[in-house]
Input
Amino acid sequence: MDVADDLLALIGNTPMVRLDRTARNVDCHLLAKLELYNPGFSSKDRPALAMITAAEADGRLQPGGTIVEPTSGNTGVGLAIVAARRGYSCIFVCPDKVAPDKIAQLRAYGAEVIVCPTSVSPDHPDSYYSVSARLARELPKAWKPDQYHNPDNPRSQYDTTGPEIWRQTAGRITHFVCGVGTGGTISGIGRYLKEQDPTIQVIGADPVGSVYSGGSGRPYLVEGIGEDFWPTTYDPSVVDQVVAISDAVSFSTARRVTREEGLLIGGSGGTAIAAALRIAQGLPADAVVVVHIPDSGRGYLSKLYDDGWMSDHGFLRASGTTVGDLVRERDPDLPSLVHSHPDETVRTAIEILREYGVSQMPVVKHEPPVVLAEVVGSVDERDLLGAAVADSGVLDQPVGSVMGPPLPTVGIGEPLAAAAARLQSAPAALVLDGGHPVAVVSRADLLGAIARAGAPHS
Ligand code: PMP
Output
């Protein structure tokens, strides 16, 4: 019978497909390595199997042990599948930007999942790196695969995916494009391919703001790729170039490929295809660009494939007058996002409100551009006034100790009615463009816009 002995035997040997519609405006071949065909629906089944097998072999992982790992989901699924077959427990620690469906999936395999804030630094005790390190230290028979520093992670891709791509393209591959998270995939596959043919170009696809493309590693919305530190599983010597892609382009590319090719891919697959299309511009007809698709879009149906979520985050534009028109019409001298920081004094915050003539502003952790996870609260002139009148000592206190909760958000492409709905319960709303807060709109702004739009000949 043509039947695998167990599910683990079905890891790897994934198919490749030509993306002819996606590549219709370029001359070269564009081929996708479909890692969503693995039993756990992602490329991370391969390192999960390799890391566990190696740890069993040298005794780091003992019978009945517990696997503890910080993971955005896919590595967790791979580990959970191998653990289920081989009798281990799993505890996964995830950042809070991970899609709820992915967390539910891990729990479905019987794993315990702990969710930690994205907005804290990696060395903070509540960060997902710190929490997993503590659990791995304190639990008996715990083993941490440590995918960011485990050489079996890139080795699994070197041993399996690299040879598959070389064989499937009959050695004709000229460019390999791949998202970079731990860097295990690009480093392992890239090294194998360059050993076969040193002229093959290896290109990383990275979210704007992540360290690989020169950023500081601040949060972005695409999941599974980009970092705020340099993992040892990333080997920069095999990567010729890193292309930075915005969340907006990653998401719109993933949605377009899904509709045009009938291939439901995740957000980071969108990042990789967007980078591949940039690289493909100007390449000759015999160039063979292989793009790595790490996972399926099934885990992101409530995010990038949900029009409501995309609109709220400022990725989609409605017809008619939008929140963006309102923002653009306003005083052109206003800096894009009037803001305060949690460690600034209340006195400074009041000066900022007065200088720009605004009544409320968000409190953000870094200088803009920021993402929503970096918005920690808001201040309102009425609240500050009340606090300062009751106790003038408040003026020298940090904003963080008196601020209110973050303002509700509205997408820049949403109709004015959406802003009106948000402003029922709050005096102002934070406007998001491509996932980034860019402005605040108040009830007064909205009333002004409605009055102007309603006036004849205006
Ligand atoms: N995309 C997704 C969705 C992932 O989960 C991962 C793994 N973190 C990657 C891309 C990148 O793979 P790697 O960690 O090997 O760089």
About this structure: The pocket of 4'-deoxy-4'-aminopyridoxal-5'-phosphate is lined by residues 44, 72, 74, 179-185, 223-225, 266, 268, 294-295 (CB under 6 Å).
